[in-house]
């Protein structure tokens, strides 16, 4: 006879979430979701609360990204849910299996004007894998199970359920949740074979690996495929660190010559979006390997696009038994370009200028960051430098907002990273613009004993807007912030610590103090407002 669980709606929901490996919730207190708190409190289930709902969703997303299992955010009705929309949308673009459980005004009074009465589902449906309202307390475990199964099924993404007041406060019973059963998508073996043949026989092949390689737990298979066919590898997003920088097939600085000269470009687990020139690689044939058919590019012609479980696809490519071209000369040429790029970067990271260059900050960070440190990028111009100068040596140690480009992820990602790794270095890199979105949640970190290091590149402007607007129009508007603002004093006022740095030689000692402080600590570095990261427009 099947085991039956009984309890109020919060107890039923949490029991179902636990079956999927959910170990904590992130929330901002609200009366509509009290039963979820009650269930957590009575069972020792950790609750982390924040000062803005977007932070709760970003924290859940960080857990989902880093641990490759669902993260849970609990948001109260109405504005609680709508404040989490940007976090949900980022999770959707990042294929992060986040579950948001929302409160909802009572169904029996619907239309009467209850507090925070709003139909969330039509709003969140386009940015979730699953969205619905639970209409019976007994159905809560089944609905949570369906939502989390959808969230974990490739292509992964967030799910949303809201629980009307009388449903979540009432008691019910249901079958005990069993082990998750997540469907696995099998790729067409002929397409996989064609992709392997193209890579193996190409004279100048390149692999670009992205976040879904990490999310799909396919790091080992990526390495095996690259090594078997001897193909140079570039990475983006959470694909970074898939091959350590010392690996003979790992490249970062030679991307331009690689993509300009390649005859086959194989993009794995990342969309052909603005970060990759929209998949336009000159005369090269494009192989696009994705985890689900929905992720195949439709705006460019690809030679082949296998869709399915990335571990299985890459393992099959590694086992390719056909003819293989010799790529040694191609790899050697790229290594020469890579070494030249590293030499240029080393010079920039050592710059001794009166106005601190952002590159110098990253030169100092490279000296103090441990191999397993988690670095978090939350910003535009300043974080662009991070992507260039920081080279993660391990997979699963880099978090950025992803292709949606939403600012304000920093404090939530920091909370989720610290919860995931209590003993690692957690370092948040923020522009001074991004700091305005979420810095108040440094208080949440302080109050709950979650130390992280925040490094603010403070140039007093919106760097990605001011310089291009000047170039286009000869003037700029709405692009200035307060020069020299003391963001470290903000964190001090919230119970943390910090300092402002104005000289390049002071950066290293400040970072050492920050990482040894044991409290949230902000290093506020005043940088050169005239130093802009070189890039073409990403607006097209």
TrEMBL record:
Cited Pfam families: TPP_enzyme_C, TPP_enzyme_M, TPP_enzyme_N
Limits of the Thiamine pyrophosphate enzyme TPP-binding domain: 378-525
CDD domains recorded: TPP_BZL_OCoD_HPCL, TPP_PYR_POX_like
GO molecular function: acetolactate synthase activity
This enzyme's EC code(s): 2.2.1.6
SUPFAM superfamilies cross-referenced by the UniProt entry: DHS-like NAD/FAD-binding domain, Thiamin diphosphate-binding fold (THDP-binding)
Top-tier EC class: transferase
Thiamine pyrophosphate enzyme N-terminal TPP-binding domain ranges (all copies): 9-121
Domain Thiamine pyrophosphate enzyme central intervals: 192-317
Requisite cofactors: thiamine diphosphate
Keywords: Thiamine pyrophosphate, Transferase
Similarity comment: Belongs to the TPP enzyme family.
Protein name in UniProt: Acetolactate synthase
Provenance organism: Paractinoplanes hotanensis
């Amino acid at each position: 006879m099947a085991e039956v669980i009984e309890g109020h709606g919060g107890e039923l929901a949490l029991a179902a979430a636990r079956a999927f490996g959910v170990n904590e919730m992130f929330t901002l207190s609200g009366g509509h979701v009290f039963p979820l708190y009650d269930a957590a409190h009575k069972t020792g289930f950790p609750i982390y609360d924040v000062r803005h709902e977007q932070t709760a969703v970003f924290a859940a997303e960080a857990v989902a990204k880093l641990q490759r299992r669902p993260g849970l955010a609990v948001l109260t009705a109405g504005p609680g849910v709508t404040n989490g929309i940007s976090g949900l949308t980022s999770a959707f673009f990042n294929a992060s299996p986040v579950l948001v459980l929302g409160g909802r005004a009572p169904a029996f009074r619907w239309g009467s004007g209850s507090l925070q009465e709003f139909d969330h589902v039509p709003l969140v449906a386009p940015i979730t894998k699953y969205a619905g309202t639970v209409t019976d307390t007994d159905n809560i475990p089944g609905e949570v199970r369906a939502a989390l199964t959808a969230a974990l099924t490739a292509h992964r993404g967030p799910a949303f359920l809201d629980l009307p007041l009388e449903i979540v406060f009432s008691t019910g019973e249901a079958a005990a949740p069993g082990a998750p059963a997540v469907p696995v998508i099998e790729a067409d073996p002929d397409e996989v074979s064609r992709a392997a043949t193209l890579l193996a026989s190409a004279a100048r092949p390149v692999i670009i690996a992205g976040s879904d390689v990490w999310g799909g737990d396919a790091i080992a298979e990526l390495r095996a495929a690259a090594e078997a066919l001897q193909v140079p590898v570039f990475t983006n997003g959470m694909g970074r660190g898939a091959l350590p920088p010392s690996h003979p097939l790992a490249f970062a600085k030679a991307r331009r010559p690689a993509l300009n000269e390649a005859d086959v470009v194989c993009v794995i687990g990342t969309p052909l979006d603005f970060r990759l020139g929209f998949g336009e690689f000159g005369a090269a044939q494009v192989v696009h390997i994705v985890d689900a058919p929905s992720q195949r590019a439709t705006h460019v012609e690809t030679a082949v696009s296998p869709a399915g479980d990335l571990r299985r696809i890459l393992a099959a490519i590694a086992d390719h038994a056909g003819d293989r071209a010799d790529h040694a000369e191609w790899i050697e040429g790229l290594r020469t370009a890579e070494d030249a790029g590293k030499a240029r970067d080393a010079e920039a990271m050592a710059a001794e200028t009166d106005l601190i260059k952002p590159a110098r900050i990253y030169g100092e960070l490279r000296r103090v960051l441990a191999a397993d440190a988690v670095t978090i990028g939350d910003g535009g111009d300043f974080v662009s430098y991070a992507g260039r100068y920081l080279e993660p040596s391990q997979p699963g140690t880099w978090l950025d907002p992803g292709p949606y480009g939403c600012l304000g992820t920093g404090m939530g990602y920091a909370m989720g990273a610290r919860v995931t790794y209590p003993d690692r270095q957690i370092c948040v890199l923020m522009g001074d613009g991004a700091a305005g979105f979420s810095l108040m949640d440094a208080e949440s970190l302080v109050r709950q004993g979650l130390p992280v290091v925040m490094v603010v590149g403070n140039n007093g402007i919106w760097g990605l807007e001011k310089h291009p607007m000047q170039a286009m129009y000869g003037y700029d508007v709405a692009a200035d912030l307060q020069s020299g603002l003391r963001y470290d004093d903000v964190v001090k006022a919230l119970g943390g610590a910090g300092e402002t740095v104005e000289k390049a030689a002071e950066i290293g000692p400040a970072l050492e103090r920050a990482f040894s402080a044991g409290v949230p600590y902000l290093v506020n570095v005043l940088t050169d407002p005239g130093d802009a990261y070189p890039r073409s427009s990403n607006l097209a």
